[in-house]
Amino acid sequence: MEIKSLYDLWLNNANDDIDLVNELKEIKDDENEIYERFYRELEFGTAGLRGVIGAGTNRMNIYTVRRTTQGLANFLNAKYENPSVAISHDSRIKADLFAREAARVLAANGVKAYISKELEPTPVLSFAVRELKCQSGIMITASHNPAKYNGYKCYGSDGCQMTDVSADAVFEEIKKVDYFNGDIKLVSFEQGLESGLIEWIDDSLYETYLDNVQAQSVNPGICENSGLKVVYTPLNGAGNKLVRKILARTGVTDIVVVPEQENPDGNFTTCPYPNPEIKEALALGLELCEKEQPDLLLATDPDSDRVGIAVKVKDGYRLMTGNETGIMLIDYVLSSRKKNGTLPQNPVAVKTIVTSKLVERICDKYGCELKNVLTGFKYIGEQILLLEQKHEENRYVFGFEESYGYLAGTYVRDKDAVVASMLICEMAAYYRQQGKSLDDVMNSIYEEYGYYLNRTESFSFEGAAGMQKMADIMTSLRSSHPTEIAGFKVTDVADYLNSYTKSLETGKTETINLPKSNVLSYSLEGGGSAIVRPSGTEPKIKVYITSVGKTESDAQSLAEKMVNSMTSIMGI
C-alpha cells in the first residue's frame, strides 16, 4: 500500500490511544515524518520487535503489539493444544499497557495468559515460562535503549528467546494479519480475568525464582559479616526489588541505593541512555560512591538482565568492562568450585564469538570445555538445552557475553543480572577476606595471562537512509576484504552469513557450523582481531576490537590504531 494511503488508514482507524490520534494529526502535512513512520513494518525476529514508541507500522504501539500477538496466537494454536503464555514488562513507557494488550489478544484466541502484576526482570519471565509450563513468553522491554524505544521479546517453551525457525514461522503468521479489518481478536482485560484465560502470576513464583538464584552460590555464607559495602542503582528499572532481596538473603546488608534512580521511570531522566556499559549512565552512582566509599558499585539495566560494576581503587573507582567482569566471574566460579570439590566432571562454559579470548586460557587451566556461539544470549541458552537433552545440564557452569550479560545455573535460559549481582558481591567478599579488591584480582589475571584489551565501537545510523548505509557497508566489506588492519596482516576471514572461514595465507576454506548471521571477523597476526556486526536490536554497526599487549598501555595504543583503521576501511 502507498505510504500516504497507509497514513490515511491509520488516521481513520487508530482511535484506541489518544496519544496516537494526536501524533497522526500533528504530522498531517509533514511528508518526512509520515514516511519515517510508514516506510516499513517493524520486523519480527529472534529478538522480537523493537522500535520507537509512536504511531505507524514502523513504531511500537498497541496496534503493532496486537497484530504481533495475533500472529503468535495463530502460531501457537496451530502447534499446541490449549497453549499458554507468560507475560511481563519492565519500566518502559507504555510497557504495562502493551503487556495487557497482548493478554487481551491471547485470551480472545483461547490462549491462557499468565501476566505479572508489576514490572519484573527479563530473567524472571524466562523462569516463569518454564515454571508455569507455558509454550511461549512475552517480555515488553527495550532493554538498555533510550527512553523513546520499547520492544516485544518472544520466548519459546524452553525459556530461551525464540529460535530462528520459530521466529520465522511466527513472522509468517504476523504478515497474514491486517491491522484493522477484523483479523485481530480482542476481549476486555476484565473479561479475560473473569473467564480464567488471563491470570495474575502468583507472588510465590518470585520466591521460587530467588531460591533458584541463591542455589547458584559458590561459597554460601561468605558475605555474612564480611564488611562488604555496595552502592546499587537499578537505573529506574525492574531490578530494584529482586536484586536487593537476593543480596539480603546472602548476607549483603550494607547497601546504599542511588535515590534518583531507585523507582521505576520510563523517561530515564537522570540517564538518557540507561546502559550500564556507558559511564554517563553511572554518573550518579559514581558520585554517591565518592561519598559512601563502598567496595563496589552495581548497576542493572532497565530490564535487569545486564549488570555493570565499578570497583574501588586508590584514587577513586574503576569501571570494569563486561569482559573483565565475566573473566573474573568465570575464574572465581571455576577456581572456587574446584577447591570446594563441586566442579562437575567435564565442565562446560559458553561465550559468544565477540567475547574475550582470555576466557579460553582460563578454561584450559581448569579443564573446562569452552563453547563459542553467535552473538545473542539465546545461543548460550540453546547450549544449555542441548546439554539438558543429553541429561548433562549439570556440566554447565557459566556463560557470558561481553555486553554485560552473565548466567550461572540452568534455571533460566537468558542472561540474569540478579544472579550476576549476587555472584559479584560474593566474589568481592571472598577476595576481601584475603585483603584483595576486585581491581587487584583483575590485575593479577592480566599478569598471569597477558593484557587482552577488548574495545567495542558503535556507529549509529538512524532512519531509512541509515538502514541502507549499514547494508552498503556490509556489502562493501564482503566484496573486498581488508588484507591488513593497523599494519597487521589479516590471516583469516570468517563470514558467518555465508558460513565459511578462509585463510588468506593458504586460500583454504572451511565451513562454519553455526546459524547464519550477518557477521564478519578478521583474525590478525599477533593474536588480535576485528569483528563487524550490525546490531540486531538497534540501528548501529558494532566493531569489536581485540588487541593483545604486554601492558595496558601497549594494548590501548594498538586498539586505538585498529579502531582508526577499521573506521577508514568501512568508510565511516
Describe the protein's topology.
Blueprint: H1 3-13, H2 18-26, H3 31-38, E1 49-52, H4 62-79, E2 84-89, H5 95-108, E3 112-115, H6 122-131, E4 136-140, E5 149-156, H7 164-175, H8 189-195, E6 198-200, H9 204-214, E7 229-233, H10 240-249, E8 254-257, H11 283-292, E9 296-300, E10 307-313, E11 316-319, H12 322-340, E12 348-352, H13 358-365, E13 369-373, H14 377-389, E14 396-401, E15 405-407, H15 417-432, H16 438-449, E16 451-460, H17 463-479, E17 484-485, E18 488-495, E19 500-503, E20 509-511, E21 520-524, E22 529-534, E23 540-549, H18 552-570
Helix pairs in contact: 4-5, 4-7, 9-10, 10-15, 12-13
Describe the structure.
With 572 residues, this protein is an alpha/beta fold. The chain contains 18 helices and 23 strands. The strands form 4 sheets. Strands 16, 17, 18, 19, 20, 21, 22 and 23 form an 8-stranded antiparallel β-sheet that branches. A 6-stranded mixed β-sheet has the order 1-5-4-2-3-6, with helices on both faces. A hairpin with a 4-residue loop joins strand 21 (520-524) and strand 22. Helix 4 (62-79) packs parallel to helix 5, helix 4 (62-79) crosses helix 7 (164-175) and helix 12 packs parallel to helix 13. It is globular and about 65 Å long. The mean pLDDT is 95.
List keywords for this structure.
572 residues, alpha/beta
